[in-house]
């Protein structure tokens, strides 16, 4: 009986090993990378090994996914994916929501957005979706007015009212923290702010509203959404362990969607 149990256990372990899967998941630096490392720990007992691959910008992760260099990515919000699919023809799909990271306005020179002087230089991301998101935040603050019908992707050309004659510097999102020496303020994505040592809770002079539509998502190639590894990836991400990690580590500057 003991021999049969030992053999059964060995066969079970062998089957589990055979079913184990390895995937690469692309992320951006900061909270997306840190959270995915935690997801990888939870996924391991599920038979899924995750290699976390960091990309320094917002363009390459979707290209790498479309080309098959990685199996999934977790760095972007839904409007950005939709814009990428429209512009680049990627055959990618969302399989789960992850976190929301309210965008913040940071300054080395000002303590309050109300102190923004006329002619101030404002740094914003140079990609259409995040640049548009930054402009929508500034409109919500009453600093500019955008033309109707621009949706979630307005550009500085869509500004119809600009009472303070703000000047916009469109820069790579990853470079915006470094731009603070040259701007009166910059609108920065939370992942790049955190990577630069900025605290969204204490270092911002204004924050995006909590009801933002920019929830982040896990994305795979179309056809892979029903793969077993994709289901395990979502299960691990949406686990109580990962939720507790996010709530403790980010203290409200990163919000879970589940």
TrEMBL record:
Is tRNA-binding one of the keywords UniProt gives this record?
no
Q: Where in the cell is it found?
A: Membrane
- NCBIfam families, A to Z: MetQ/NlpA family lipoprotein
Which keywords belong to this entry?
Answer: Lipoprotein, Membrane, Palmitate, Signal
* Chief location category: membrane
Is Endoplasmic reticulum given among the entry's keywords?
no
Q: What is this protein called?
A: D-methionine-binding lipoprotein MetQ
Question: Which organism does this sequence originate in?
Answer: Paracoccus haematequi
Under InterPro entries, the record lists: Lipoprotein_NlpA
What Gene3D superfamilies has UniProt attached to this entry? Periplasmic binding protein-like II
Output the PANTHER family linked to this UniProt entry. D-METHIONINE-BINDING LIPOPROTEIN METQ, D-METHIONINE-BINDING LIPOPROTEIN METQ-RELATED
The gene designation is metQ
Task: Describe its membrane topology.
Answer: Lipid-anchor
Q: Which family does it belong to?
A: Belongs to the NlpA lipoprotein family.
Any Pfam family the entry gives: Lipoprotein_9
Signal sequence residues: 1-20
Which Gene Ontology cellular-component terms appear in the entry? membrane
């Amino acid at each position: 009986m003991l021999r049969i149990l030992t053999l059964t256990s060995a066969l079970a372990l062998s089957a589990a090993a055979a079913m184990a899967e390895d995937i690469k998941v692309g992320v951006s630096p900061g909270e997306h990378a840190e959270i995915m490392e935690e997801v990888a720990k939870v996924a391991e007992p599920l038979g899924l090994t995750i290699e976390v691959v960091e990309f320094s910008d917002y363009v390459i992760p979707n290209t790498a996914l479309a080309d098959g260099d990685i199996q999934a990515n977790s760095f972007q919000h839904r409007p950005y994916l939709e814009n990428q699919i429209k512009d680049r023809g990627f055959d990618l799909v969302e399989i789960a929501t992850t976190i929301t990271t309210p965008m913040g306005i940071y300054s080395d020179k000002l303590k309050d957005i109300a102190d923004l002087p006329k002619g101030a230089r404002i740094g914003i991301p140079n990609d259409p979706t995040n640049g548009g998101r930054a402009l929508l935040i500034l409109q919500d603050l009453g600093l500019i007015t955008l033309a109707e019908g621009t949706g979630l992707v307005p550009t500085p050309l869509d500004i119809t009212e600009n009472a303070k004659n703000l000047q916009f510097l469109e820069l790579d999102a990853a470079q915006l923290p470094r731009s603070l020496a040259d701007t009166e303020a910059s609108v920065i994505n939370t992942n790049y702010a955190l990577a630069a040592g900025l605290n969204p809770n204490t270092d911002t002079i204004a924050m995006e509203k909590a009801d933002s539509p920019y929830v982040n998502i896990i994305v795979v190639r179309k056809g892979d959404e029903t793969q077993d590894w994709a289901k395990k990836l979502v299960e691990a991400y949406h686990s109580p362990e990962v939720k507790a990690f996010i709530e403790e580590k980010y203290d409200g500057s990163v919000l879970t969607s589940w």
